[in-house]
């Protein structure tokens, strides 16, 4: 089996899609599956000597400047793809490289798999561009129309796309590295590093942007009861268009903004936190929530999007009414006031995360690739 992957985002870009694809590539190598990766050029490369990674000139995407949209050289792309002769072509983004992948799949009858990662319609609401919604859905239906499978990360996302008349939908869930994210990663030096003098640490990890519902997060911070607020240190990990706004509104010793973190620095903060707070309503899955659970940190999340499928209410965290700051405040207050319940939730969270193996999830994806490849070959043979 030979897999060609077309994506407009990849490491070192910091988002769930890029991180998932990086892990997928590692798994393909682990299973000795041949692959070719077609991605935007990066400011830095993880391994510039790999001959199976092809990058193309790119520019920032206006809704998400941290991600880049490629401008592929079609002659070069065609040459490299035909030389590889893939059995399956996987498009992961509906931008320029994804379009190139769809075009080449049709032209050379390469079985096509698509994956859907982002609720762009929700993003349009936050950026006041809802007039584009119908046009966007028409485009996405056309983009995914020839896919033998459209892979989505959650049941919520599957239902959402089915309601928009998408076909051939299947679940490609997400896993977590429970060695990288673990309660054992907690480091005492972080209290000094971030000047933490309060009893509790509340953590947010994600893009600092409107679509993460940081408007509700600001209300939560302001509405916490005084006796709770005085004992809380907030830590925000991430970057984005709202970072400067958040910094200007919360200029105090009880709030820390770290910018992007990864590796051991990120793992240590997950393990340090008493609770993970994530009000976003736009997630198709929510990798950061699963990473928090793996670290033994209960998560408080919204009741919209894929995150509600990760958290078991009152077992591994709390599910709150989306956009309702008071609902989050009540959950935070309840758990910070009950150390035993918080500890039990942390154990349950870790136990659940241990069952979410990346290996089994990626092996299932390889099985899907194989089914698509064999099914398409059989149809061509009968034609």
Automatic annotation (TrEMBL):
- Which GO-annotated molecular functions does the record name? hexosyltransferase activity
What keywords are annotated for this sequence in UniProt?
A: Transferase
Q: What is this protein called?
A: Glycosyl transferase
Span of domain Glycosyltransferase subfamily 4-like N-terminal: 14-178
> Where is each Glycosyl transferase family domain found?
197-350
- Which organism's genome codes for this protein? Alkalihalophilus marmarensis DSM 21297
Cited InterPro entries: Glyco_trans_1, Glyco_trans_4-like_N, Glycosyltransferase_grp1
| Pfam families named among the record's database cross-references | Glyco_transf_4 (PF13439), Glycos_transf_1 (PF00534)
Q: Which SUPFAM superfamilies match?
A: UDP-Glycosyltransferase/glycogen phosphorylase
């Amino acid at each position: 089996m030979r897999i060609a992957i077309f994506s407009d985002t990849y490491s070192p870009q910091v988002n769930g899609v890029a991180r998932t694809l990086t892990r997928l590539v590692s798994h393909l190598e682990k299973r000795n599956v041949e692959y070719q990766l077609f991605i935007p050029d990066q400011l830095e490369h993880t391994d510039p000597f790999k001959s199976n990674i092809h990058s193309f000139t790119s520019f920032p995407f206006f809704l998400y400047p941290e991600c880049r949209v490629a401008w592929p050289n079609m002659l070069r792309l065609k040459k490299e793809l035909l030389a590889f002769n893939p059995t399956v072509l996987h498009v992961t983004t509906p931008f320029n490289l994804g379009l190139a992948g769809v075009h080449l799949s049709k032209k050379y009858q390469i079985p096509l798999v698509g994956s859907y990662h982002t609720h762009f319609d929700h993003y349009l609401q936050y950026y006041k561009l809802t007039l584009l919604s119908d046009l966007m859905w028409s485009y996405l239906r056309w983009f995914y129309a020839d896919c033998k499978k459209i892979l989505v990360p959650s049941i919520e996302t599957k239902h959402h796309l089915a309601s928009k008349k998408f076909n051939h939908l299947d679940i490609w869930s997400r896993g977590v590295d429970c060695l990288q994210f673990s309660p054992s990663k907690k480091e005492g030096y972080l209290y000094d590093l971030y000047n933490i003098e309060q009893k509790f640490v509340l953590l947010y990890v994600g893009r600092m942007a409107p679509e993460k519902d940081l408007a509700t997060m600001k209300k939560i911070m302001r509405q916490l009861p005084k006796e709770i607020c005085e004992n809380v240190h907030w830590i925000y990990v991430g970057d984005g268009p709202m970072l400067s706004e958040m910094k200007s509104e919360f200029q105090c010793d009880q709030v820390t903004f770290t910018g992007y973190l990864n590796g051991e620095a990120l793992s240590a903060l997950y393990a340090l936190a008493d609770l993970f707070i994530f009000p976003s309503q736009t997630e198709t899955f929510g990798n950061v929530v699963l990473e928090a659970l793996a670290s033994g940190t209960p998560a408080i999340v919204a009741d919209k999007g894929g995150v509600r499928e990760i958290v078991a209410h009152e077992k591994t965290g709390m599910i709150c009414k989306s956009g309702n700051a008071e609902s989050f405040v009540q959950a935070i207050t309840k758990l910070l006031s009950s150390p035993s319940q918080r500890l039990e939730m942390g154990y349950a969270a870790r136990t659940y995360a241990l069952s979410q193996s990346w290996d089994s999830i990626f092996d299932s994806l390889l099985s899907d690739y194989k089914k698509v490849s064999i099914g398409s070959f059989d149809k061509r043979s009968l034609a």
